[in-house]
Predict the structure.
Amino acid sequence: MSATAFALDALQTIVDRFAGRRLVVLGDLMLDHYLWGRCERISPEAPVPVVDVQRETSSLGGAGNVAANLTALGAEPVLIGLVGDDDRARRLFDAFADRGVDTRAIVRDPSRPTTMKTRIIAHSQQVVRADWESRADVEGAARAALLHALESELPRCEGLVVSDYGKGVVTRAVLELALGIAHTRRIPVSVDPKESHIEAYRGVSILTPNQHEAGWVMGQRVTDEASLASVGWGLQKRLDAEAVLITRGPDGMSLFERSGRATHLTTVSREVYDVTGAGDTVVSVVALALAADADYPEACYLANHAAGVVIREVGTATCSPNQLRQSLAGALA
């Protein structure tokens, strides 16, 4: 299926239906911290660049960035995740408040740190990253609170997004409850997967791995169209998912549906400054479009255009409905 098979009016109507859609976003919360500067010399202590830091910023990462993307598109996400009791958590809550993200269902666990990734950027290029985190599975009272939040919030929503970064929130027990509720109530489930949890996603609506993740799971590198098809169809059948969307960077996206239909979408953006958070944008737009009654190719086409907007900016970014409409019009008008 080529881009010309998509109708602009139908896609614009789906975007119009984004407003007010309620979705649960379940996953790992993190703060993306940036140190921006210039690099003009190499350290005399080791063969590494010296970055003269000029400014410092923070933004939402992981499931928080998914929720921010949904909010920017007019949806009403309910964020279910985990933070510590530290300054990084307070900075996260300030960022959520600035974006109008619902934080009622976020659980605090003083026994673990709030995840933060610090990226040092010189001349718009990432030099190094430092992480503060715990990858231990959530347990005890914190896990009970997460399960209670799912039982309370998910039945009242139109979609479930699982944003799994392997930081301890998305465990087998948490997934079993979330997927059970979603299946019973016919709520579409969209997953940005962690490879180590892959078997737990059986029967979901759609998974959105990149080609490296998909290839690793299937034990086969994606190097050409034949290996892409083998990995895509193999993963769809292995998990009995309704669909698998493999993101391929500059080569676009490829969708494999249970019906046997394959759809290949070419990349939209010609200018790529930073792919950080692009996967969050893809899964958020796919999930929101499905909640707005799009079919899988339409949802993925919309996600492709939204991703094309955000990768033109350095750092995690979001796409507005107007930006999405303009991108669609430029391609299909």
Residues 3-31+59-114+135-332 form a domain with the UDP-N-acetylmuramoyl-L-alanine:D-glutamate ligase fold (CATH 3.40.1190.20). The mean pLDDT is 92. The chain is about 35% helix and 25% strand. The CA atoms of residues 4 and 84 lie 48 Å apart.
